[in-house]
Request: fold
Amino acid sequence: MNDDLNTLSEDTPAKDRKFVEALSRGLDVLRAFSQGTVVMGNQDIARITGLPKPTVSRMTYTLTKLGYLSYSPQLEKYQLDSGVLALGYAYVSNLRVRQLAKPYMDEFARSTNTSVGLTCRDRLSMIYVENCRPAETTSLRMDVGVRLPLGTTAAGRAYLAAMKEEERSHVIAALASRSPDTWPETAARLEKAFEDYARHGFCLSLGDWDRNVNAAGVPLHLQDGTLMALTCGAPSYLVSEEKVQNQLAHQLAMLARDIERLGV
Reply:
């Protein structure tokens, strides 16, 4: 059972008369395809979502009829269809902060020779909605839609650091429940990240998410109250820990303030 689909109680409010359980289950079926498997059968989806297989069968049938899934008779499995793409494209293409921030991110990526990402949260993950990198750089390619873990990445740590305390406590409890064996180490590094944010306005991930990647992250506060995160990173053989901590992270924090001043 995938924790991103099942551990955040605030995303599935109990005893809320306005909450449509059937719709929630249908969306959980679609979310199951974000876990890295392109083609799945009803049994695979049931395992990931924790839903009963008869319920999954009804959901996949309905989603196929609506154009969000397609079914392969040869494989007897499902995959995402163009209806999902249309929704995702509509979100990304109409995201005003992405349109206004891109020239600034392009210039930052070019001048620092790093990959620069704009991310938003989805349950226990951060998702790229924009990525800019120098044309000559082939490493650390992060396409739109790529998911990052909250607890070990610079973007996720920056987002958590800027959350309201009550909401953050719910998310951290879900992270602890998800990986109890490694949680003490993760918790200690999160505390260090929160201290960095309080002192400097940024968070770091120096080989924590990928031992070969050094990155910095800062929160981005939009005028409508939306919280996002900017991140920049590069392979450790190109950018040292010292450069990220003493130079790039401070520059990234200034980039975030420049974007916020655009009035998005």
Q: What stands out?
A: The chain has a mean pLDDT of 90. The domain at 95-260 is CATH 3.30.450.40 (Beta-Lactamase). DSSP finds nine helices and eight strands in the chain. The longest helix spans residues 241-260.
